[in-house]
Amino acid sequence: MLPKPEKHPLFNCGKLDCPVCMKAYSVVQLKRRFSKEHYSTHGVAPFIGRFGYPAVQAGVFAPPEGFDESWKLDAPRTWAADNLALGKIVEYRSSLMNSRSAVHIKERNITDLQEIAMASKPIDVEIELKKKPFFRITADSYIAPSGPVGQLKEMDVTSSPKIPAHIEKVYSDIDLKAADALWYLQKHGYDETYLMRMFSTGVMGLKKDRRMVPTRWGIVAVDDTLGKYM
């Protein structure tokens, strides 16, 4: 059994509620689960990086294997409703591998990522990495922590995503502005996390304007846009 964080040599800041220490502790526990190149799992959420824009790193957050409640790994509204402890949130997020590859923001061949973004629950995916994922600890004021990072070689969606009718409507309407689409979906009960996933993967808005948006920027844009409609 691993010692408690405050007694482990990796965790020496002395603060039990420190997110960085909590994530480091989770890394030690999870390393054995991320020790290969191939994963049959669930695509929980898309990720679009910002470095190198407009050529960015885009990919998917996924646990080492799929399970019935994998959606809880990226569900801030549920975390808040359940008053989930910070340590548990870090544990959830640290178990999500970020498998990604370089892509231009106007790339059209990102159907798999868009299906993951639009699906009402995580879908089955096969992920092949170029090599075993590596761990690193990052702290960010906008994006929740995540687990290991892997360079994506290939990803295939292996199940049919269940996409709600409201989402299909927004995706199909290439004359509907993104701001109006966000407002329409919020009125029908879709939370900010769901909307941000869609906004970031370019599945809404005027056809000529559709493109990927870095996740960090997407969070801010969705919050600002919905705030103007309130």
Structure description:
With 230 residues, this protein is α+β, with helices and mostly antiparallel strands. It has helices at 19-30, 76-81, 86-94, 111-118, 165-172, 178-187, 192-200, 215-229; strands spanning 38-43, 45-48, 55-62, 97-104, 123-129, 149-157. A 6-stranded mixed sheet has the order 1-5-6-4-3-2, covered by helices on one side. Helix 6 crosses helix 8 (215-229). The longest helix is centred in the last third of the chain and has 15 residues, at 215-229. The relative contact order is 0.16. Mean pLDDT is 86; it is low at 1-10.
Keyword list:
230 residues; alpha+beta; 18% strand
Write the layout of secondary structure elements.
Elements: H1 19-30, E1 38-43, E2 45-48, E3 55-62, H2 76-81, H3 86-94, E4 97-104, H4 111-118, E5 123-129, E6 149-157, H5 165-172, H6 178-187, H7 192-200, H8 215-229
Helix pairs in contact: 1-3, 6-8, 7-8
Strand content: 15-25%
Number of strands: 6
SS-based class = alpha+beta
Oligomeric organization of the protein chains:
single chain
Mean pLDDT across residues = 86
Helix content: 25-40%
Number of helices: 8
Order of helices and strands: HEEEHHEHEEHHHH
Q: Largest sheet, order of strands side by side?
A: 1-5-6-4-3-2
Report the sheet with the most strands, covering strand number, pairing sense and barrel closure: 6 strands, mixed
Termini distance?
50 Å
In the predicted model, the low-confidence regions spanning at least 5 consecutive residues are 1-10
